[in-house]
Amino acid sequence: MLGQLIEKSNQFTIIDMEASVEHMSRGTVRHVDTMLIVLEPYYRSLETAGRMVPLARGLGIQRVYGVANKIRNASDEAAVVDYCAKHDLELVARIPFDDAIVDADRAGKALIDHNDASPAMVEIRALARRLAEAV
Amino acid sequence: MKIAVSGKGGSGKTTLSATLARLFARQGFPVLAIDGDPNPNLGMALGLDAALQSELHSVPRSIIEQRKDAAGATESVLTQPIEAITSQYGMTAADDVTLLVGVQVDHAGAG
Q1: What residue numbers bound the domain in which A83 lies?
Q2: ipTM
């Protein structure tokens, strides 16, 4: 059903996907042109993502990008950069760990409404601009 | 542009999806945000009013119908125009982002 909604959407469409890789079916993502794979600098996150990359490519998605998230320091960043190099995955954003995200969640608010200029917001805004330029 | 955001649970994909949706809307694009997670919280991440969040319902499976195509293969098609689906089941969040919950809520698996 998701696949049908995505196909027929005539709007700029963003799908927050189910976490488990096994549910990523051809029917669902057939009409997706860009997939962002969120990468945390932890072994299990990178391992999960590692299974997603070949799947996403196998499903014929035009652009598959990595987005690093919750980066606290240089070694976090290096872990994700290494991972992307190994999987030939283009890293399009490096989002820092940001307390504003935790605070926004606790307050039940959107990050953009809670703190429009937090470090993560700055990086996500740059990513949005970059993606929109590709349209 | 149609962007899927994936990643492990808790990786921040919902915050990223919601924030991108709001930013694209502010850039002037009409944006549809689809929650494809069985434990949906894209509404909250988009900043949807708490009262409206509790009124959010997933799009029912009845909007899909199986048909045979010319070659006899089964295909799924929408039984009504997408505009009718978004106006009936969607919610309008800040910056005019349209939100649809695309997966049946998995109450047993919540948390």
Answers
A1: 2-91
A2: 0.95
Distance from CA of B56 to the nearest CA of A (A): 16
What six digits make up the tokens of B22? 């709001």
Query: Is there a contact between A79 and A46 (Cβ–Cβ < 8 Å)?
Result: yes
* Same-domain pairing of A38 and A70: yes
CA dihedral B40, B41, B47, B48 (to 10 degrees): 40
- What is the pLDDT at residue A19? 74
Find chain B residues with C-beta within 8 A of A27's C-beta: 76
Q: Which residue has the tokens 């307050």?
A: A107
Cβ–Cβ contact A117 with B under 8 A:
no
Highest mean pLDDT out of A57-61, A87-91, B67-71: A87-91
CB contact under 8 A, B5 and A24: no
Residues 72-111 of B with CB under 8 A from A: 76-78, 81-82, 85, 94, 98, 100, 102-103
User: pTM of the predicted model, to two decimals?
Assistant: 0.93
Please count the structural domains in chain A.
Answer: 2
Nearest CB to B6 within list A17, A70, A95? A17
Report d(CA B31, CA B12) in Å as an integer: 20
